[in-house]
Amino acid sequence: MLIKLPRSKPLKSLSSKSTTMKQINTKRSPNCSSSSSVQSTPEIEKKYVHRVYDAIAPHFSSTRFAKWPKVSTFLHNLPSGSVVLDAGCGNGKYLGLNDECFFIGCDISAPLVQICKDKGHEVLVADAVNLPYRNGYGDAAISIAVLHHLSTEGRRRKAVEELVRVVKVGGHVLITVWAVEQEDGTLVDKWRPLSRKYLDEWIGPGSPRVRSVGSVSLESIPETEVSVGNKEVSGDEKDKQQEYFVPWHLPYHRAEVSGASVGAVENGLARKDDVKGAIVYDRYYHVFGEGELERLVSGMKNAVIVDQFYDKSNWCVILEKTS
């Protein structure tokens, strides 16, 4: 029998050892995420996140069906009648998981949202850094494997602020992100680290998303000129690497491999791998190091951490809105 938690108490810890509740530091980062520029989608996300998921949506959905136990536990511990907002819902595998709650999902990918609609879910197209809900609309919110697709700390922080904004006081927010510390270290070897030149010129710490090189802005550089690969990243740099292109192999026999995929190959957004018989798309990831997710939420003045844990190569945190 499912035990419901009273709204006045924090969620039961999902980690093996419960983390003591602690107030998040209210000091704001100099790189304040309230800037309107934070809500402008960088080209790297448009090309290597949005366009990629639009292209692979049906195949991606066919591989996403297993529910993570700790996400399921979080959702099943919510009081009956809770409104749950899933920001970055993908193919909707968590929507409706607790049939005693009401779920609303959103995702930046219209094809993924359509897949959710076809399943009968309440969904809409929306950006994680600009959620289309009024303040305090939901009782809880989840962001599962989303923040690592945002290419600056300011945008990642803004996404967290949005999640807290749209839940009621006393509501809870679960966030998970990919970890640098993967359980299977061989997976990292299959990822394509962004070159130092690319990091310095496009993603540099605290830098604006557009920098001019002569008369040409980096936003105008085509995909084929983005430099990636192990050869340009030294051993020491690779140890510190957190910016990657993670490949997605779309088999030749898939219906999605059509004119659009051919065009993507011609434009440099994807490449052919005849050995594996697939079109390969690169997805942008900023993978999180230990403690980074906790530091990211340190600018929040109206939330506390009620749990934090590592699960299935992901860093995870649960927040409670306090005011």
TrEMBL record:
Keywords, A to Z? Methyltransferase, Transferase
Task: Tell me yes or no: is Methyltransferase among this UniProt entry's keywords.
Answer: yes
The UniProt record lists the keyword Secreted: no
One GO biological process this protein is involved in is: alkaloid metabolic process
Map out region (Disordered) in residue numbers. 1-39
| InterPro entries in alphabetical order | AlkB_tRNA_MeTrf/Diox, Methyltransf_11, SAM-dependent_MTases_sf
Give the CDD domains listed for this entry: AdoMet_MTases
List all Polar residues biased stretches.
19-28
Which stretches does UniProt call biased (Low complexity)? 29-39
Q: Which GO terms describe its cellular component?
A: cytoplasm; nucleus
Q: What is this protein called?
A: Methyltransferase type 11 domain-containing protein
Q: Which organism is it from?
A: Ambrosia artemisiifolia
